[in-house]
Write a structure and sequence with these properties.
By secondary structure, the protein is of the alpha/beta class. It has 2 domains: 6-74 and 106-175 and 272-343, FAD/NAD(P)-binding domain; 79-103 and 176-269, D-Amino Acid Oxidase, subunit A, domain 2 (D-Amino Acid Oxidase, Chain A, domain 2, 2-Layer Sandwich), CATH 3.30.9. The protein has helices spanning 16-27, 54-60, 68-71, 106-120, 163-167, 238-248, 252-256, 301-319, 327-353, 357-366, 369-376, 382-395, and strands spanning 6-12, 32-35, 50-52, 78-88, 94-104, 123-125, 128-134, 137-142, 145-156, 179-188, 196-200, 210-215, 220-227, 260-270, 283-285. The strands form 2 sheets. An 8-stranded mixed β-sheet has the order 3-5-4-11-12-13-10-14. Strands 1, 2, 6, 7, 8, 9 and 15 form a 7-stranded mixed β-sheet that branches. Helix 1 (16-27) runs parallel beside helix 8 (301-319) and helix 9 (327-353) packs across helix 12. It is globular. One of its GO terms (biological process) is phospholipid biosynthetic process.
Length: 396
């Protein structure tokens, strides 16, 4: 595919945020180019793919206008459906709450979203790397050759280390605790609770983070650890912690005994919140590039898609001379900024607790299932805040 020399809007990154941005921009009669560096969209996989149902997402971000593509997910993109979310404390104590969610096949889902963007009229250029960003001019190379393409507006949906964000100085504050590593295995031959998503805590297995088991239907599952490099023991890496969890955890190892690893998944997770600025006179950033993620659970598919929708719509409105491009920054913060900011605050309250098995077990004992659900949704009930602050005082 050979792109045109210029477009109204160029979107970098065909993940959930980028494809959603491209679709909404194209539906607003804009010429759109959607660029993806992967030769095969959705591959390699970089996410476990846990996605609450539409009604739950409305509770998660009640002020947000959810994209239509979150309401209409093809059954072919769904591995399995979960009805319960379970927390397992370091002591083995288990507590949880009911939830309606799907384990999404991200390979198929990402392709589905990109196809929706193309169906709306966007040009799609895969296997192409953006080597340089100079204002609204992009220099690219890849499977189809070298190109220089110019847009009126650039939307960066190119992940935590966004080249678009960097070129426009839209960067998060440097914080080693603000970026996590998600390291995962897809497994076959497991014997797990197919109806539940399980989250495990314990400093020996995931210091300052958590491990998970998500059924993908039948005898398959996604397991992983969400952990920050600043908390690694000397000479250990994320893979070492996942291996320890899979083979040595007193509860999880029994469920995973004899399983075969069919795929390795890895990616960065920006859990430090959003940059101070996400919009300039000619550039917007969305998704992981803009910190559109709920730090308490690492979930970012839905919030990335909300950010993408707003980016695509705002860019189109700007080019129709109906708004300033910088208004995007306040619009997305009005719709989901409180939940994202609150989740970062809760994550910071939990950071020290998760390094103490005794205190983490105490926290899980004291917090009710309803309060756990609220925390997962980026909310902080006053009773929980007082409990966490009291436990933190004990640490210092």
């Amino acid at each position: 595919m050979t792109p045109e020399d210029s477009y109204d809007i160029i979107v970098v990154g065909a993940g959930p945020a980028g494809s959603t941005a491209a679709m909404y921009a194209a539906e607003n009669d804009m010429s759109v180019l959607l660029i993806e560096k992967k030769k095969d969209i959705g591959v390699p996989l970089q996410c476990g793919g846990f996605l609450p149902h539409y009604s739950v997402l409305q509770e998660l971000v009640p002020n947000a206008e959810l994209p239509v593509t979150l309401e209409e997910i093809p059954s072919s993109c769904i591995h399995a459906t979960a009805s319960y979310q379970r927390f397992i404390a370091p002591s083995g104590l288990s507590k949880g709450f009911e939830v309606d969610a799907d384990a999404i096949d991200r390979r198929r889902f990402d392709k589905h979203l990109a196809k929706q963007a193309a169906k709306a009229g966007a040009d799609l250029l895969v296997g192409t790397n953006v080597a340089e960003v100079n204002e609204t001019k992009l220099f690219m190379d890849g499977a189809f050759g070298e190109f220089e393409v110019e847009g009126k507006v650039i939307i960066g949906a190119d992940g935590p280390n966004s080249i678009v964000g960097k070129a426009s100085n839209m960067l998060r504050d440097p914080d080693p605790m603000g970026t996590g590593t998600a390291f995962e295995y897809e497994l076959s031959g497991v014997d797990i609770d197919k109806e539940a998503v399980e989250m495990y805590f314990g400093k020996d297995y995931v210091p300052g983070g958590y491990a998970w088991i998500i059924s993908q239907g039948g005898d398959t599952a996604n397991i992983g650890v969400g952990i920050r490099e600043a908390l690694f023991e000397e000479h250990l890496c994320a893979r070492d912690y996942l291996e320890r969890f899979m083979y040595k955890h007193p509860i999880a190892s029994k469920k995973l005994e004899g399983a075969s690893i069919t795929s390795v998944v890895a990616g960065l997770v920006p859990v430090g919140g959003a940059p101070k600025v996400t919009a300039s006179h000619n550039t917007l950033i969305a998704g992981d590039a803009a910190g559109h993620i709920i730090a308490t659970n690492g979930g970012g598919i839905s919030t990335a898609m909300v950010g993408g929708k707003l980016a695509g719509e705002t860019a189109a409105e700007f080019l129709k001379e109906k708004c300033r491009l910088q208004e995007y920054d306040s619009i997305w913060r009005q719709q989901m900024g409180l939940e994202i900011k609150t989740a970062v605050y809760v994550r910071k309250l939990m950071d020290k607790l998760m390094l103490s098995d005794r205190l983490m077990t105490t926290a899980i004992k004291m917090i009710t299932p309803e309060q756990m659900k609220a925390i997962q949704c980026g909310q902080l009930p006053d009773a929980v805040r007082k409990t966490l602050m009291k436990l933190n005082v004990g640490l210092s």
